[in-house]
Write a structure and sequence with these properties.
This protein is α/β, with parallel strands linked by helices. It has helices at 4-25, 51-63, 78-81, 145-152, 173-183, 193-201, 233-245, 247-257, and strands at residues 32-36, 39-40, 44-45, 67-71, 90-95, 102-103, 108-117, 138-141, 159-162, 188-192, 206-210, 221-228. Keywords: Signal.
Amino acid sequence: MMRRPLAAALALAVLAGGAQAQVADLRSTTALRVCADPAASPMSSEDGSGFENRLAELLAAKLNLPLEYFWFPQGMGFVRKTLRDGNCDLIMGYAQGDELVQNTNHYYTSTYGIVTRTDGPLAGVDHLTDPLLKGRNLGVVAGTPPATHMARAGLAKDMRGWDLFVDRRTENPVGDMLKGVKDGTLDAAVLWGPLAGPLVKQDPDLQFVPLVKEKGGPKLFYRITMGVRLNEQEWKRQLNSLIRRNQPEIDAILHEAGVPLVDDYGKALKP
């Protein structure tokens, strides 16, 4: 007669195996299914104009699969309602180390930076401890790492905070900050490079300077991965291989879009 602990262990093993098979079965074999925010320009957009859209198109072409989207606003519950519910098999643009998804290898590294007018008095500023920033109207996304650096540099009273976790279909915090710099309402804005860089590239009156000279924490650079379900090891390996073999094309898309790329340690710009 089988002893109860052994029987229980075998039963759990069978259940675990079945759960893994069920998770694996969620992935489509007939299309590359991507979940994305429909209004997160310049990264993703329902009209296909974002640089993440172009990267997804590259992956789909390499996989010889059609590209399909499941659109959902980025915010609380995004992973649960998209990837975990089986509505897609891939999320683009996830910071390395996020525990809600299984990360692929990173396919680029970027950093926060400072946006100023090209002809303004702060055009030469490249670090947050520059005395020229004192007494200026400075925009920053509330709760982001550079806000900590700015407070430590004595700029807390000069900071105006924006909330990034809004429905981008109706609100545009990054666009509002850039508009403020352009019209002089703000003297500078400190923003995540992939959000600001492509938009600044389109405006000759503005410039984006990567913050690669900051000392101490928190870090201002992040390695960006793709997110898949936690148990889909084979799918992750397939994506890692695609990233490795197509890195030059990935870099070209990001450079063309205006995404500031830095080395893996956030110390220098990547050519």
